[in-house]
Amino acid sequence: MSCLGSVAKVIANTCLIVPVAGLEIKGWLFNRTDATFTEEANDVEISAIVMGGATVMYPITAVKKENNAGFDLVAADNLPDLFTNYFAFQPYERDPDSIANFDNMDDVCAVVELKGPKTEGCFIILGYLNGLHKSSASFRALDNNGIPTYEMQSREGEQEKYSHRVFWKTDYDTTLGLLVAQET
């Protein structure tokens, strides 16, 4: 029996759910192994993220388009379809502690808020199963206004089962409150 399924739900684009390009300015990064997740029955929806011990989620704030997120399909003839999750950020900080933080981070998850309607699906989790790992980092003093770019993604052979996970608990304010509560 195949682990891939057939179409299971009506696909209905309506004027009420038109996507908007971009991310809200605030997202969260956290160490994947420090988090415990509560999966709902369909295992795409996550209703709780609890950080272990004294660990926290770290807010990552952009001014405009310094953060980016997404996924790419990885199709193979001999394996189920998988997805490479992707997150990139362009930090302004130049102090030694920040540089060490950027250069040393590995195996993290990102939660980002999509622009558009603040309904189920506006908060997505990337790197849920196997984490995000640095795939590139670049800086050129005369390019991109002197801002470095760090890109993180799923490692080859460690891609994700789903394009992304949805983080949602009851309503927008409750979901946002759960994220903010994990910052401290």
Describe the structure.
This protein is mostly beta strands and 184 residues long. The chain has one domain (20-181). 10% of the residues lie in helices and 35% in strands. The chain is built from 2 helices and 11 strands. The protein has helices at 96-104, 172-181; strands at 23-31, 35-39, 45-51, 58-61, 68-74, 82-89, 108-114, 123-126, 133-138, 149-153, 165-167. The strands form 2 sheets. Strands 2-3-11-8-7-1-4 form a 7-stranded mixed β-sheet. A 4-stranded antiparallel β-sheet has the order 5-6-10-9, with no helix packed on it. The radius of gyration is 17 Å and the shape is globular. The mean pLDDT is 93.
Number of strands: 11
Low-pLDDT runs of 5+ residues are none
Oligomer: single chain
Strand coverage percent: 35-45%
Sheet/helix structural class: mainly beta
Q: How many discrete structural domains?
A: 1
Rg calculated over all Cα atoms: 17 Å
Distance between the termini: 46 Å
Strand numbers in spatial order across the main sheet: 2-3-11-8-7-1-4
Count of alpha/pi helices: 2
Largest sheet: 7 strands, mixed
Order of helices and strands: EEEEEEHEEEEEH
Into which percent range does the helicity of residues fall?
10-25%
Any chance you could write out the topology, listing elements then pairs?
Elements: E1 23-31, E2 35-39, E3 45-51, E4 58-61, E5 68-74, E6 82-89, H1 96-104, E7 108-114, E8 123-126, E9 133-138, E10 149-153, E11 165-167, H2 172-181
Parallel strand pairs: 3-11
Antiparallel strand pairs: 1-4, 1-7, 2-3, 5-6, 6-10, 7-8, 8-11, 9-10
